[in-house]
Design a protein that fits this description.
By secondary structure, this protein is an alpha/beta fold. It has a single domain, classed as Rossmann fold (3-Layer(aba) Sandwich), CATH 3.40.50. It contains six helices and nine strands. The chain has a six-stranded mixed β-sheet, sandwiched between helices. It has a three-stranded antiparallel β-sheet with strand order 1-2-9. α3 crosses α4. The chain is globular and about 55 Å long. The structure holds zinc ion. Zinc ion (ZN) binds next to α6.
Length: about 200
């Protein structure tokens, strides 16, 4: 059972900020896709980030959160905006030799209620890495808050409460078997490269 969410207000801003592109793309994996997501383009507008944080904070309003943590870099902006709305600390972890760590004097105290923020959840792998760090400090994970869920796999399978605003169900195809290529409308582009404009 897929639980898709559609926030039309957020979707409109994702499209106008070109954070969500529809067309024919080459993903970093080499697969072709009909959609491309780059949340930083949405979050570069503080008013958009604040709106998303307000919507997510409402969902967690009874959770008595002590601290919001985001993984660098994708989770940092939303973690900070969520912390602002909730009136709590906003921190981030960063990779040192591939492992997420707290640096810069950030800490999580034992039994603190921690909300994990992320811009987009795809497989849940990086969420799991942040969660391991929180547990290492003895924090209690209240849940995960994300702007977008990529829906691979079903987010209901995450072992934590998961709230997100908008589902993006992108299709991904092997280049040799891509229906968008077969239609021959326009060649695929690599978002993020200079060719994007
Ligand atoms: Zn294609």
């Amino acid at each position: 059972m897929l639980s898709l969410r559609e926030d039309k207000e957020i979707e409109k801003l994702l499209l106008t900020s070109q954070a969500l592109l529809k067309g024919h793309f080459i993903l970093s994996s080499g697969l072709h896709s009909n959609q491309y997501v780059q949340c930083a383009r949405f979050l570069q507008y503080p008013s958009y980030a604040e709106l998303a944080a307000r919507k997510l904070a409402t969902l967690y309003k009874d959770a008595h959160i002590d601290v919001v943590i985001g993984g660098a870099f994708g989770g940092i902006t939303l973690a900070y905006e969520l912390a602002r709305v909730l009136g709590v600390r906003g921190i981030f972890c960063e990779r040192v030799e591939g492992i997420f760590l707290l640096r810069r004097g950030f800490e999580i105290l034992p039994q603190e209620k921690v909300l994990i923020a992320e811009d987009v959840v795809t497989t849940g792998k990086s969420i799991d890495e942040v969660a391991q760090l929180v547990k290492h400090y003895g924090g209690n994970i209240v849940g995960v808050a994300s702007l977008i869920d990529r829906h691979m796999p079903d987010p209901e399978k995450l072992p934590y409460r998961f709230e997100w605003l908008h589902s993006v169900q992108a299709e991904a195809y092997d280049p040799s078997d891509c229906p968008l290529c077969r239609e021959g409308k326009e060649p695929p582009i690599k978002p993020g490269s200079r060719g994007i404009q």
